[in-house]
Amino acid sequence: MATEISTARQPLPQHRSWPSPAKLNLFLHITGRRADGYHNLQSLFQMLDYGDHLQFEITGDSQIDLQTPVAGVASQDNLIIKAALALQSYTGSTKGCRIWLNKRLPMGGGLGGGSSNAATALVALNHLWQTGLSLDKLAELGLALGADVPVFVQGRTAFATGVGEQLHPAPQPEHWYLVVNPGVQISTQSIFTHADLPRNTVPIRWHEYHFDTSRNDCQELVCRYHGEVAKLLHWLLEYAPSRMTGTGACVFAVFPDKDHAESVLRALPEQWQGFVAQGVNQSPLHSQLETRNG
Ligand SMILES: C[C@](O)(CO)[C@H](O)COP(=O)(O)OP(=O)(O)OC[C@H]1O[C@@H](n2ccc(N)nc2=O)[C@H](O)[C@@H]1O
Ligand SMILES: Nc1ncnc2c1ncn2[C@@H]1O[C@H](COP(=O)(O)OP(=O)(O)OP(=O)(O)O)[C@@H](O)[C@H]1O
């Protein structure tokens, strides 16, 4: 008897792949704490040309199904589903979708993978469901899902203030980055609730920003509890200026060219995983959308 190969869970080739890029926090200064416990910060969100991918099949019923579950995340907690439901509920759209996620970014890595997935779902479904919301409105819906969602919705390398949602586009030289995962997951909340986190960095003016004179205020605390992050930073600093992104655990090193970044990736001790990506001023999601609309 011939074996029937089921394709029911596979996306069809005509379902375009929508980029869901990573970001780096080139610096992260914590300038205060709000009454609700959230922290005011200053950061430079650098978009990368590397990340996850999402595919969507639009359906006529209002059902939203994620065909590729994320290990350890229940469907109702998945930011992709939450984003789709938020858009559906705000616009009253009666359309639904099946979604496929190709996950490449480490979770809890400080690369904003979950937030980026949510933003891609908002931007792509707004296009595919023809719900016509502006990026500002989508960013507002996204903020309720996570502090990092708006920057991915707006899709520009940007300075951020507030809790990360007040964005000022800030094009940067499109350097190459070696991003390395030390293999530990760090909960953002555990860092932000720690008594020893510095919370009073004096705000800088944007034109004063320089990589060498800025820092990540979470880095020292993370290194104290996670020796592997400290070890990795120490190793990378031998080759290039390096820093932790977000609340960790991933660390990046900055290079002016791709070849140099790739040669350090080849030298990486085998206990660590990494990738090389270019910093871009426009998110690959938005570049693709422009090409499609153009
Ligand atoms: C620090 C960054 O990684 C910089 O990119 C982000 O702003 C974190 O953004 P995120 O992962 O989307 O964070 P959320 O999911 O909104 O918040 C996770 C937890 O981090 C804390 N949190 C987050 C952002 C912020 N500005 N202040 C905070 O105190 C809160 O305790 C919150 O419960
Ligand atoms: N689609 C998703 N992809 C990844 N994580 C998700 C997703 N949906 C929900 N989550 C939850 O969000 C948590 C944080 O994931 P994420 O990969 O965004 O972390 P991060 O890179 O540290 O983010 P940030 O830099 O914003 O702090 C995960 O541990 C997981 O529980």
Textual characterization of the structure:
- It is a single chain.
- The chain is an alpha+beta fold and about 290 residues long.
- The protein has one domain (about 10-294): Ribosomal Protein S5, domain 2 (2-Layer Sandwich), CATH 3.30.230.10.
- About 30% of the residues lie in helices and about 25% in strands.
- The protein has helices spanning about 80-90, 115-130, 135-145, 150-155, 190, 220-225, 225-235, 260-265, 285-294; strands at about 15-35, 40-60, 65, 95-100, 160, 165-170, 175-180, 240-245, 250-255, 275-280.
- Strands 1, 2, 3, 4, 5, 6, 7, 8, 9 and 10 form a ten-stranded mixed sheet that branches.
- Helix 6 (about 220-225) packs across helix 7.
- The longest helix has 16 residues, at about 115-130.
- The model is unreliable at about 1-5 (pLDDT under 50).
- Adenosine-5'-triphosphate binds near residues 107, 110 and 246.
- The site of adenosine-5'-triphosphate has 20 residues, from helix 1 and helix 2.
- Pathway: Isoprenoid biosynthesis; isopentenyl diphosphate biosynthesis via DXP pathway; isopentenyl diphosphate from 1-deoxy-D-xylulose 5-phosphate: step 3/6.
- This is 4-diphosphocytidyl-2-C-methyl-D-erythritol kinase.
- It is an enzyme of class 2 (transferase).
- GO terms for molecular function: 4-(cytidine 5'-diphospho)-2-C-methyl-D-erythritol kinase activity; ATP binding.
- It catalyses: 4-CDP-2-C-methyl-D-erythritol + ATP = 4-CDP-2-C-methyl-D-erythritol 2-phosphate + ADP + H(+).
